[in-house]
Amino acid sequence: MASGSGRRGGLRLARILSGNVNSYLSSGAEKASTAAWRSTGQLSSAEIAPFGARSVSGQIVRNRLRSRMVAASKLRNVQVKAENSRGLWQPFTALLGDAPATKVDKKLIVTISSDKGLCGGINSTVVKYSRALVRLNALDHGPDDKPAVVYVIVGEKGKAQLQRDSKKLISLYFGEMRKQSVCFTQCSMMADEILKSNEYDAIQMVYNKFNSVVSFLPTVATLLSPQQLLAGNQELTGELDAYEIEGADTKEEVLQNLGEFQFACMMFNAMLENATSEMGAQMSAMENSTRNASDMLDSLTLTYNRSLQASITTELIDIISGAAALEG
Amino acid sequence: MSGAAAGAAAPYWRNAGMTYISYANTCAAMVRNCLKEPHKTKALNREQVYYKLQTYQEGEPQKPVVRETPPAPPAKE
Fold it and tell me: Is the pTM of this model over 0.80?
């Protein structure tokens, strides 16, 4: 592969250089010094040739290439799942609406981030949006002592960033999500825990929606509690009244069930989209870092070669002038 | 989130403290158990759960709790 030809090119250059050295030297004493030089392995052996640096780095570049292929296939799998799960929440939004600007008393912010690093800026954007939501909420309510906003953090990286300044506001933390691949049972168990542990009027989920391999949009999904839904939205209740609900359920119960199920579906979709964005960001981060590393490697190799040639030339000049001084 | 609004009786599962999500998932687990063999193990393996939950009291993290489904052999639930 690339490194093999690089190594061969290095060998060729090493031979040419040693050939040049031999042609410059005329007397036998200098040949001894060259022999000594060669025995230290600086010019002769391929592995620790001056261009040995290129062969080691070729290995690293090949590893990066391989892990990029792996990431691409993982991305495809999760992307399919995420796109299929979008159909879960779209009917909910059509029915219940999406109202990000609602002013409520108690808010729950679910921040979805990744566990692993090396995924570009997606975690910082999610944390930035969550903090902005908290500040917006503070603006709405004036200087209240009681925190009307509570965090639920999913993912290691989000916790690391939010713990620094918002520790008092955190209520729950879910970690080690990626040990098993994301499934609906897992998301609904998490949603269940969140519902049982907190009283809230609205939930705002912050996650990265997957647009394409290079573009991830930070998204806020707002879910109102059933009481809020009934209170705020007159047309919704009017619409629901037009339907006859069978069984013993009342409209409030149906709305409550729907609200809880909506949360579970949105959680499922948000986790999948975030996982897809994480894979995509990892791929592009690795690709960028590979490209930067290759560029840096090339420029450093050139600098190294130049300085090596300069030092060889200086040595030659010393030897030749010494020899000339001896003769003359 | 307490039970139903005034008037109607809440369904039995809500009285027992379950949310609709846990009710729906329990029903789904029962349906998965009714599958025939090769599909059953596939479905059960698909829905494995593992996560760690850590509650925070007054800004201090409490001891984390692991929630997982044991990778069950097909006979068990």
Answer: no
For chain A positions 255-274, those within 8 Å of chain B (CB to CB) are 256-257, 260-261, 263-264
Task: Tell me, yes or no, if B62 comes closer than 8 A to chain A by beta carbon.
Answer: no
Q: What is the C-alpha to C-alpha distance for residues A267 and A247, in angstroms, rounded to an integer?
A: 28
The HSE-up count of residue A35 (CA atoms within 13 Å, CB side) is 5
Rounded Cα distance, A286 and A283, in Å = 5
Structure tokens at A42: 């600086």
A77: contact with B, CB 8 A cutoff: no
For B56, the closest of A172, A180, A248 (CB atoms) is A172
Q: For residue A196, what are its two tokens? A: 């049982």
ipTM of the assembly?
0.78
Contacts of A308 (CB under 8 A, 6+ apart): A50
Task: Report which secondary-structure segment, H or E, holds A149.
Answer: strand A149-154
Please write down the HEC assignment for all residues of A110-164: EEECCCCCCCCCHHHHHHHHHHHHHHHHHHHHCCCCCCCEEEEEECHHHHHHHHH
Q: End-to-end distance of chain B based on CA atoms, in angstroms?
A: 29
CA distance A177 to chain B (A): 5
Over residues A39-69, the pLDDT tens digits come to 443 443 333 444 544 555 677 777 777 777 7
Best mutation target among A113, A162, A184, A227 (most B Cβ atoms within 10 Å) is A184
Distance CA A87, CA A91 (A): 7
The CA-CA-CA angle for residues A95, A101, A107, to 5°, reads 95
> Between B1, B51, B56, which is nearest A190 by CB?
B51
- Contact between chains at B64 and A175 (C-beta distance less than 8 A): yes
Choose the weakest-confidence range: A15-19, A242-246, A271-275, B8-12: A15-19
A253, B21: Cβ pair inside 8 Å? no
Question: A224 with A232: CB under 8 angstroms?
Answer: yes
Which residues 19-58 on chain B approach chain A with CB closer than 8 angstroms? 19-22, 24-25, 28-29, 46-56, 58
Amino acid at A324: A
Please state, as a whole number, how many other Cβ atoms lie within 10 Å of the Cβ of residue A2: 12
